[in-house]
């Protein structure tokens, strides 16, 4: 097998289900797992208390989400990495898959029913544009 399995996360319960499925696939296929969180805007917020100042950005928040999920997925014999990517979630996942020469992208099926089906979903967009296989996990509608 070449390339990692990439899973997109956003901190939601449905993304967590997709990440767990991606972990199971990676272990079964003896592939590395890469956890990725997208952020659309590069906003920065400065917060302070007394003489202390913190600077938080969307990029840092996305990296934190990806890192926390990656840490929760660690398992013996499994290599897990993480990153954040700028752009709409589907576009960022596809770009990351191209950059890493991914074997597969794993996404959940959130927003694939009802109005979301008409307006589009991350899973649908990834499936139509991915440079590799796509596995859509049934995370909602169970």
Automatic annotation (TrEMBL):
It holds the Pfam family Usp. Residues 1-138 form the UspA domain. Signal peptide: none annotated. CDD domains: USP-like. It comes from the Bacteria. SUPFAM superfamilies: Adenine nucleotide alpha hydrolases-like. InterPro entries: Rossmann-like_a/b/a_fold, Universal_stress_UspA, UspA. Belongs to the universal stress protein A family. This is Universal stress protein. It comes from Sinomonas flava.
